[in-house]
Specification:
- The protein is α+β, with helices and mostly antiparallel strands.
- The protein has two domains: 115 residues, Alpha-Beta Plaits, CATH 3.30.70; 47 residues, SH3 type barrels.
- It is 18% helix and 38% strand.
- The protein contains three helices and 13 strands.
- The radius of gyration is 19 Å and the shape is globular.
Length: 185
């Protein structure tokens, strides 16, 4: 990987420079970084010659009346490392890593990350979207239903939000665009 600064692919998406880390580098590890340390960790890994993948999206940020473009991690708090377990521990020694996550399904993660890399390389405009599944508690973040909380009932073209009254054993559902929802921990 190159040690150079992050390269802009287009106005929407970019990745850490260099090619996608190949299987010969080793296994995938997910590095859960400390807050706002993703780019620094990726730069440190590149400087050490360790394969990594950090997908970035370019978004507008407003600071008062000033508008600025910022390259932000597609998955805040995570950098994907491809190498040996010792490489993951080297990254941990930078004091910027909160957790090293071992990947049991290497082929699946490789397939998913390669698809992301190809989409970013083709200048696809990617938008972060919450991973919603049935039974997940969510809150509507904008629009006329802002602040409304419920559970995901089903995955359809429009997500179905379930509003329950447990004591009565009753519920109603509402169809809503999943991009308006935030997952409640």
């Amino acid at each position: 990987m190159s040690v150079s600064a992050l390269t802009q692919v287009d106005q929407e998406a970019s990745v850490v420079p260099g090619s996608f880390p190949e299987a010969s580098r080793g296994l995938w590890y997910v590095l859960h970084t400390k807050s706002r340390q993703e780019k620094v960790v990726a730069g440190d890994l590149a400087a050490m010659g360790i394969g990594c993948f950090l997908p970035l999206v370019r978004q507008v940020r407003y600071y008062g009346s000033r508008k600025a473009w910022a390259e932000l991690p597609l998955f805040p708090g995570y950098v994907f490392l491809r190498g040996e377990v010792d490489h993951a521990y080297e990254a941990d020694r930078t004091k910027r890593i909160a957790q090293i996550i071992r990947v049991s399904q290497q082929e699946k993660l490789n397939w998913e990350l390669r698809n992301l890399y190809l989409a970013l390389s083709a200048k696809a405009p990617l938008t972060p979207f919450p991973y919603l599944k049935v039974g997940l508690r969510v809150e509507v973040r904008s629009g006329p239903f802002r602040g409304l909380q419920g559970m995901i009932e089903g995955r359809t073209p429009k997500d179905r939000l379930l509003l329950q009254v447990d004591i009565l054993g009753q519920a109603v559902s509402l169809e809503i665009d999943g991009s308006l929802l935030d997952v409640i921990e």
